[in-house]
Write a structure and sequence with these properties.
Number of strands: 16
Radius of gyration: 23 Å
CATH architecture of the largest domain: 3-Layer(aba) Sandwich
Largest sheet: 11 strands, mixed
Structural class: alpha/beta
Number of domains: 3
Number of helices: 17
Strand order of the largest sheet: 3-2-1-4-7-16-15-14-10-8-9
């Protein structure tokens, strides 16, 4: 849903509020081009102050997210103006006022929000979801979807609606949490010029890049080719030249921390090609919602106490399958007939348990219910591994879900949706979502709304997720390699890179390894 403005707004119309910041920013851009940076700066500040006030009064997370997307060009223009003046610390501050804002708010305030019993509206939503899963009648599904939408609206405003991130991470604080080997790159896509703000422990610099139109066209094409199990070294080299080659510190720093923008959220940076080698061959890659979220997550990981339990593993769809075709951990919608068996998921979960110390808890088959997982999720643990079907709802991101085993007369519908994940109090160093499309969501300039960010907001230090549908057998192999490296006390990003390199060295295309990425604190060991 977009914010619709009338063709002729009047001074008394509430929609005038949405025009005011844009008009101020337009005037600021004109003054900036005329060389009057001081006057432009004053108008940009007024414009962003108005947007901040609107966001603080948003009634729900969805409205807040939409406002961030609609108004993000204002912040991007201000950011570009400050970069041209060489005011990089101010540019970072302006960008962080909008980038990853929801995740930072949740990270700062989630622990103070108590758990609550399901409300009548939440009970009704569970009933409707179960009915939707159990019918394939198109008319009934349309009616149920309408009822679900109305019930979601009745859930009321977000607990965080009135909370605003007043203090984005200052540059000195961000540089303190960066290691000597880390290079944080925060991208801003715009027309006619995009930017990469590159930050190391001792420096910061902004690099102009090609236009948003050119970069996103190449990124979308390359992702589609990878998903089709093709390789395109020429396009991979072009994207490397556009996104990484201009940055002087790239060759020296081996740990990349990427804060994407727009379609870059869906681009596997590890599959870009420098000369004749994938980025994976020389660098680790970690993805972050924002620089502010990165700083909070690193500090959160450092302050966590020793976990009580090393491992919780969940595999719901463990029954054998008689199909000879590769099984994908994907469903196109919550419909019972699509929940096919994932026979390799049981071996995946149990092999990981052997690699990690005891005690552990494993939920398999019919025991792997949403209710049981919610009960376990509050336990302090090193690793939560979920080998499940996943569902990414692009139109209604809060409905994106992980699919658990059906419950007979249970309180839950088996769909652990993003809106529910945010309400959990996760106390895990690592959550692995071994399901399809968990890193995919509606792409806006603010961030990607997806299941991964929901787990970050719920308290996980880091999340391993996927950018496309996964093939069951190769996923089991990659995940068991990943955990065997973790068991030998490698850093999370090193363990993932090592597992991906193993598949690359077997001659497998990027489809089989590049879609798995780590989000959040990259450097901890288990």
């Amino acid at each position: 849903m977009r914010l619709t403005l009338p063709s002729r707004p009047t001074p008394t119309s509430p929609n005038e509020l949405y025009l005011a910041p844009a008009n101020l920013a337009l005037k600021a851009k004109i003054l900036d081009k005329m060389g009057d940076s001081e006057a432009a700066d004053s108008l940009f500040r007024k414009s962003t102050t108005l947007v901040d006030a609107m966001i603080q009064r948003a009634s729900t997370i969805s409205v807040e997210r939409q406002l961030l997307v609609e108004m993000s060009d204002i912040y991007s223009s201000y950011f570009a103006s400050l970069c041209r003046q060489g005011r990089y610390d101010d540019a970072l501050r302006v960008l962080e006022k909008v980038r990853g804002r929801l995740e930072a708010e949740a990270l700062q305030h989630h622990s103070s929000q108590p758990l609550h019993a399901p409300t009548p509206q939440e009970h009704e939503l569970t009933r409707l979801n179960i009915a939707l899963i159990n019918t394939d009648d198109p008319k009934k599904r349309d009616a149920l979807m309408s009822d679900i939408y109305q019930t979601e609206i009745s859930l009321g405003p977000s607990k965080l609606a009135a909370v605003s991130i007043a203090h984005p991470v200052p540059l000195p604080q961000l540089q303190r949490v960066l290691s000597q080997d880390q290079l944080l790159i925060e991208y801003v896509l715009a027309n006619p010029t995009s930017y990469a703000l590159a930050i190391t422990k001792s420096g910061i610099h902004a690099y102009p890049l090609p236009s948003r139109t050119a970069i996103e066209a190449n990124a979308t094409k390359y992702r589609n080719e990878i998903h089709a199990k093709l390789t395109d070294p020429t396009l991979a080299q072009t994207l490397f030249r556009e996104l990484l080659a201009p940055i002087q510190d790239y060759e020296e720093k081996r740990d990349l921390v990427i804060v994407p923008d727009g379609q870059l959220h869906l681009l596997p940076f590890s599959a870009l090609v420098n000369k004749d080698a994938y980025v994976l061959s020389s660098h680790t890659v970690d993805v972050e919602p924002s620089s502010t979220a990165f700083a909070i997550l690193v500090k959160q990981a450092e302050e966590k106490e020793k976990p009580e339990m090393p491992y919780i593993g969940v595999a719901a769809w463990t029954q054998n399958s008689d199909s000879r075709n590769p099984i994908l951990r994907a469903v196109s919608g919550p419909e019972r007939s699509e929940f096919v068996p994932l026979p390799h998921s049981e071996a995946e979960v149990e092999t990981i348990a052997h690699d990690l110390p005891s005690p552990n808890t494993i939920l398999l088959g019919a025991n792997a219910t949403e209710t049981r997982f919610k009960e376990l999720s509050t336990e302090s643990t090193e690793v939560i591994h979920l080998a499940l079907h996943g569902y990414a709802d692009i139109d209604y991101p809060d409905r994106s879900a992980l699919i658990f085993a059906p419950e007979v007369n249970g309180p839950d519908d088996g769909l652990l949706q993003a809106r529910e994940i945010r309400e959990l109090h996760i106390r895990a160093r690592l959550v692995t979502l071994s399901a399809c499309d968990t890193g995919v969501g509606p792409v806006g300039e603010a961030d990607v709304a997806n299941v991964v960010n929901a787990f970050i907001e719920a308290g996980a230090d880091s999340v391993v997720s996927t950018l496309w549908d996964l093939e069951d057998e190769s996923t089991e192999h990659l995940m068991t390699l990943f955990y065997s490296r973790l068991a030998s006390h490698q850093r999370k990003v090193d363990a993932l890179r090592s597992a991906q390199l193993d598949l690359l060295n077997q001659g497998l295309s990027p489809y089989f390894w590049a879609g798995v990425q780590i989000v959040g604190d990259p450097s901890g060991t288990l």
